[in-house]
Design goal:
Length: 227
């Protein structure tokens, strides 16, 4: 498994490289945004560990550019920016996880292994569908009514969870643990924002709405005539 670290703090970068190498990973380390962007765009990585505040090009722009280029490798933000707004922004841009400095290496390693393990699971079915919506897990493609819909990596995971449990009400706590690998915090609106963004792409332009809010319980994916 190969990991790219984009970190401008020399001690932190070397600490990460040594620890992850000793854990059995192949690690590339760069210390500025432009080099990080170039490596991520031109080479294959199983995970990118990305700082936000970087010389030349910040982490927000790197991740946004990667997702716009349909690069779906997992990204873990590792940053000192600890506000809820920053966490929401990172996850909305398509990050798979967000860890705040200072951090315990054991926690980072656990998150790294979870993200990579999730990304290497063999799907039960290559194509999941409901009504006129199809989710192709192999090609990482979403089509509704023969129209291609572009999703971020996080939106794709969220839709995969919903469609895998179609007809079931999924509580926010389950969505948080399955999609973001985090405990549910009632003070954050990360999940509601993500659902709203997904709904705007999946439902807004179509008469038959598939994503439904069940007040006080959570969200579900189902055809309208079954609600």
């Amino acid at each position: 498994m190969k990991i790219l670290i984009v970190e401008d703090e020399v001690k932190t970068g070397e600490y990460l490289r040594q620890g992850l190498s000793e854990a059995g990973f192949v690690v590339d380390l760069v210390n500025n945004g432009l080099d990080g962007y170039h490596h991520a765009m031109t080479e294959h990585y199983d995970l990118v560990i990305l700082d936000v505040m970087l010389p030349d090009l910040d982490g927000w722009h790197i991740l946004k550019s990667l997702r716009e280029a349909d690069k779906t490798m997992p990204v873990l933000f590792l940053t000192a920016r600890d506000s809820i707004e920053d966490k929401v922004k990172g996850l909305e841009l398509g990050a798979d996880d967000y860890l705040v400095k200072p951090f315990a290496f054991s926690e980072l390693l656990a998150r790294v292994r979870t993200i990579i393990r999730r990304g290497t699971k063999t799907p039960r079915d290559n194509v999941l569908s409901i009504a006129d919506l199809e989710l192709d897990l192999t090609r990482h493609r979403v089509i509704r009514a023969q129209q291609r819909i572009n999703l971020t990596a996080k939106e794709f995971l969220l839709l995969e969870l919903l469609i895998s449990h179609k007809g079931e009400v999924l509580p926010r706590s389950l969505i948080a643990s399955q999609v973001w690998d985090m405990n549910f915090d009632s003070d954050t609106n990360v999940i509601d924002v993500a659902i709203r963004r997904l709904r705007s792409k999946i439902d807004d332009d179509f008469e038959n709405k598939l994503i439904h809010t069940v007040r006080g319980m959570g969200y579900m994916l189902d055809t309208a005539d079954k609600i």
